Amino acid sequence: MSTEKNNNNKKVNFNTYWIYGLIIFFIICVNMFLYTNNTTQEIPKSKFMEIASQNHIEKLDIINDDIAEIYIAKSAQASYEHIKQGNPISVASPHFRLNFGDVGKFTEQLDKINETASTPIEYYHIKRTNYLGNMLSWLLPVFLIIALWLFFMKRMATGSGGPGSQIFNIGKSKATLFDNNTKVNITFKDVAGLNEAKEEVMEVVDFLKNPKKYTALGGKIPKGVLLVGPPGTGKTLLAKAVAGEAGVPFFSMSGSDFVEMFVGVGASRVRDLFKQAREKAPCIVFIDEIDAIGRARGKGAVQGGNDERENTLNQLLVEMDGFSTDKGVILMAATNRPDVLDNALLRPGRFDRQIGIDRPDLKGREEIFKVHLKSIKINDEEVVPEKLAEMTPGFAGADIANICNEAALVAARRDKKAVDLDDFNYALDRVIGGLEKKNKIISPKEKEIIAYHEAGHAICGWFLEHASPLVKVTIVPRGIGTLGYAQYLPKEEYITRTEQLEDRMCMTLGGRAAEKIVFDKISTGAQNDLDQVTKMAYGMISVYGMNDKVGNVSFHGMSQDNFNKPYSDETAKLIDDEVRKMIDTQYLRAQELLSTYRNELNILARTLLDREVILKSDVEQLIGKRPIEMVETEAENVTEAPEIAPEDQPEI
Ligand code: ADP
Prior knowledge:
The structure is a single chain. By secondary structure, this protein is of the alpha/beta class. It has helices spanning about 5-35, 45-55, 80-85, 105-115, 130-160, 195-210, 210-215, 235-245, 265-280, 290-295, 305-320, 345, 360-375, 385-390, 395-415, 420-435, 445-465, 500-520, 525-540, 570-595, 600-610, 615-625, 625-640, and strands spanning about 40-45, 55-65, 65-70, 95-100, 120-125, 175-180, 225-230, 250-255, 285-290, 330-335, 355, 470-475, 485-490, 615. It has a six-stranded mixed β-sheet with strand order 6-8-9-10-7-11. It has a five-stranded mixed β-sheet with strand order 1-4-3-2-5, covered by helices on one side. The longest helix has about 35 residues, at about 5-35. Adenosine-5'-diphosphate binds near residues 191, 192, 236 and 334.
């Protein structure tokens, strides 16, 4: 609900409470005024007897057999001070009041007085009912109950917490509104890289700011923009930056906010969201994780099993069709699973634009580091964004933000004045492998197996032509179940060749191969490696068509359960056989390689046992430079173009 609306509600409730209060106060005042009389003086019995004996009493009313109201004759009024100064309004009111006690005895006394008196006292029995008093006596509790009820209703309806807080607003959209009153400080400057995406969304923002510029040429404002990309790549950040830049109201909510356990709530929230948006148009509506509601309809084991979600999606489709482009409501949505989205949602006219946001490349990572390093006090000489970007291939923006933060925390824990490269290395290890578990008890025998396992990976990688360069090997246990790892620096490449994948597979199997060669036994430590290798082999054969026998086929994205295989049983068997053959071949290759470099394997494993962490430079010292890198450097030296002095350059 919008903040403004909240304020309005508050105002209305404030006024009504005052009115209720005033009414009650007024009734009480009237009652008090009517039934309390200032000029009526209460007198004791003795005084009454005295007045009566002087024949001053003109009339006496016995009210409800309880009290007597005494009226003094006009001729005698001058002898009573308080009557002389009396309030003219209360002229008709009694002058004295007497609490006589028992009514029977009192009337007897009066009769006795009257027998001897020259002018007998007239007295009347009067029954008087205090209607207002009686009414108040039951109205007041009712008023109180109503007031309490209203108070709790208000608390429940607007209260931020409490289990009942949603009951009254359940059909209302939960979108947060950012407009002129709520400042968003994120702008495009905070979003590093993503230049194409920024350009696209900037155009949308521009549409909203100057619709005439586009409509004059016959263009239509796009209705929807879908940001597609892996988690943590900055989709939400980009949307927030749009809010910061747009200068138009921006509604933000998550796809899961529509879903509630009650039927019909999702659809009603969608309606409410668009109603609010239309009121604020031109504006942007952002739905994060739209796959929570936008999943393809009618898919799933039980048809119609999730009608509520489908209804919500239908409503969204209807609303998107409903708002015309000239209204200026633009829907932005983010998802990392465009494949599961309903086709109807993706057709032009709904999400006209799809902006792919990929993991950043080297340059992108460098820029993201620059953004996040701004808020950290760093040792400028050591911490260079370029270097950090090189160390973090495949990392998304969120990972980079996390590493920067982690590094700052580590430096603070180590009481440093600025964050240095060592802290970044530590943070990187922590993000990759999890928390160091220094106290984990590992027997020397186990440690030896781990050392040989990791050394096996490292040696394979070192001597294989297409393996990625090594960064470091460690046998410090980390996180859950990580006993050690070898870290590599993959190249920034968009396609991978068969021989690269084969070398990668061989290197991954190097751990188990080392255990087999050295101890002639294998362990469970290779489970993760085997998992990777199996996936890789199935991918190469059934997705990338990298096997001669299976051929150039790809079964990617086709349903692969037991009943709906896109291939025959023979092909299934062929794939299985080829996967096995491929893995066996690479395993043998790894074993052969390690047997050839057995000496180097021993050196590396022993050093690892000794130092726990060894870097690339250490490996170079221990077993010499990597053969492929020596070849590459030689080739570079040969092909380096001779420098031409400026004056020698041919004119173009
Ligand atoms: P997504 O919505 O794609 O899952 P987010 O937008 O929530 O990812 O990103 C999470 C965090 O990662 C952001 O708050 C930001 O700190 C960081 N981040 C991601 N991409 C970038 C980027 N391009 N520039 C700067 N920071 C980024």
